[in-house]
Structure formats: structure tokens, C-alpha cells
Design brief:
By secondary structure, the chain is of the alpha/beta class. Helix content is 18%, strand content 29%.
Amino acid sequence: MQLRFLGTGTSMGVPVIGCDCPICTSDDPRNRRMRTSALLREAGQTILIDAGPDFRAQALSAGLRHIDAVILTHSHFDHVAGIDDLRPICGDGGCVPIFGSPRTLADVRERFAYAFTESSAGSTRPSIELRAVEGPFMIGPTQIAPLDILHGTWPITGYRIGGLGYVTDASAISAESRGQLRGLDVLVLNALRYEPHPTHLSLSEALAVIADLRPRRAFLVHMTHAFDHASAGAALPPGVAFAYDGLEINVEC
């Protein structure tokens, strides 16, 4: 299983518009963070995890030509705004299935209503099919287990896929969901900034979750411009690293 981090930044990305801080003006390309998204290649399939507003640029950078499915964590703008850019991948009569919670897919249907309206036939629109997730499901031979995660008061979805756990925008992870995240080869987890935040894990909170779950490796995502990749990364515990845009890793199933 191969995972490519398409984006590792928070909702505003890095650089932040109008900011001249040392991170936003850094020459280190690892400090440039598009909105958080990932690409999973497994069993000959390509699965997109979230499609934010940077998806077009991310797809071009990755040389992406085909997607078998999309799985969504939630419907906030920075995770779904790129759905329209699936259009070239839906060519030649193809239809891309999008998996997510019923609440997430209801929001997608409302925001991209033109994709489901007969009156817009003949117009350019993504050919997508919404598939509600309410328990473990399959994409081809790949089994995926959804996890209940809290993003402030907002219930969102994390995923366990073989030896991979993927959790972003979490502020809390229940004991039940933690139980499903044990024995991982790789945990992907959000760490917004150093200071506490009402809807996201801080760095210290994320490290506490990692210490509890004890994955073989952990990669942090959904980061603001609080972190310099090199200096802040050097202070992380063994087995924990800041991910960066374009990083590709192999995950043991």
C-alpha cells in the first residue's frame, strides 16, 4: 500500500495570504502546505481521501490520470471544494463513487446540486455517485472501516485501511475509535498548532494520542504556519514526523 500526501495544511494553507512570518516566507518547500488530502494506491486501485480546493494543483503535481473512488472525512470547504475538478477523471462515460457519512453526502449533494439535476444535462459537470457509509465497506478488494471522530461538536469520519489509520480535523477520539486504531503500521493524525484549539488537536494533544495508540510510525498533517518543518520536526519523538506535500510512503497492510 502506498500513500501520497497531496496536501498537509490547514484550511488557509501555507503560506497564509498576507502573512510575512518566517514560515510563510520560507525557502523550504516542505513549509508550503496545500489543504490536507491524500492519495492511496492499493491492490491496483487509486483512492482519493478528501478533495479540497487545491485538488487540481495536487492532481497535476502527482500526475494523476485516474481515480477509482473518493472517501470523504467531512464536508467542510477545505475537504470537498475540489469535487468539481474530478471532471477530467470522469471522462469517457465513467462515474466516480464518493463514499462518506450520510450527513457529509447530503451536504455534497446540496453544494454540487448541478451534478445531480437532469436540467443540467449536457453541461460540464462531474459524473459522481454518492455512496453512504454506515459501517465497514469495500472498494474493490480493499476493506475500509469508518471511525467516529469529533471535530469540535461536529461528528466526522476517520478511516482504518489495513495497517493505515487516517484521522484529520480531530479534536477528540473516543475509546471505541482508539480501539480500532491500535496495531497500526502508520497513523496519519492532525496537529494544528502548539496552542490548544476548540476543534482540532494541538501538537501536544496529538503526541499524547500517538503515545497511547503506539503505531509503528506517525505522520502529522493539517498544520498551520506555526511549524517550521526542519526545526520543529527535529524536536518530535522517534517514529513521529511532520508530513509534507508530495511525500510518499509505503504502508504495511
